[in-house]
Amino acid sequence: MRGPGAQTERDESMAGSTAGRKLRGWGRLIVVAFYAVAMAWVESACVVYLRTLLHRVDPYQATPIPIADFPVAAELLREAATLVMLASTGWLAGRSWRGRFGAGIFAFGIWDIFYYVFLRIIVGWPRTLFDWDVLFLLPLPWWGPVLTPMLISVLLILLGGVMTLHDLKKTALRSDRAGWAAFGGGIILALYAFMESSIVALMKGGERIGSQLPTRFNWLIFILSLALMSAPLLGMFKTQPAGYAESGSRNA
């Protein structure tokens, strides 16, 4: 039989292991954040070069995407490569699908917010959070006030941070299929809100997609999409049933 001293040592070892996992979790998130901030500088610098060459530092003007003078294929591949880089960061930082997805969207949120911060520092744009911007070109041009992607990014940072920390600490995290189904529905609605003007131009023949300037933003659909995308995060903070944490920890 082991004496009280052995039990005390075991308890201290377990406490130290838990504290170590917690520190490693925060440390890994900080590294992901540093990478995302550095990547945001690279992204903003590239965009400044492109927009300066095209005289489109503020994209909301006549012919915002001058197709004849614009390397569309290279830009589309650059955008795709950016998403691959962010997804790869999540894959490397997480331990499970939950942690990898969480770290990926956490990185995306940090990257997107600091992209606008650095644009403001470099060229003084955007002037306000309600300035229109071309957010992406895949698969059609996305348009929206600068505030809208930043709100989504804040949500992704919170959701991704919680998922990553619980994954790295190997603790249970409540989530349900309904919440993630709502999250997926919210993404679809947000995409529609951003691409509404491009979809309308496409339905009219597609000739004006590169020159189509949106005149209004569908805030109702966007707010609904944001609420739906918040469902998994809200569900994670619901009261957990008795025994949930214990069983989750054993299964981690």
Characterise this structure.
The protein has helices spanning 4-53, 72-93, 97-123, 147-169, 177-203, 219-229, 231-236, 244-251; strands spanning 132-134, 143-145. By secondary structure, the protein is mainly α. It has one domain (23-238). The radius of gyration is 22 Å and the shape is globular. A two-stranded antiparallel ribbon has the order 1-2. α1 (4-53) crosses α3, α1 packs antiparallel against α4 (147-169) and α2 crosses α3 (97-123).
Keywords:
2 strands, two-stranded antiparallel ribbon, globular, mainly alpha, single chain, disordered C terminus, 252 residues, 2% strand
Strand portion: under 5%
Inertia-based shape: globular
Mean pLDDT: 81
Kindly report the spatial arrangement of strands forming the biggest sheet: 1-2
Number of helices: 8
SSE pattern: HHHEEHHHHH
Number of strands: 2
The quaternary structure here is: single chain
Helix content: 55-70%
Query: What is the end-to-end distance?
Result: 30 Å
Our count of domains comes out at 1
Major β-sheet annotation: 2 strands, antiparallel
Detail the poorly predicted runs.
11-20, 239-252
CA-based gyration radius: 22 Å
Classify the secondary structure makeup into a structural class: mainly alpha
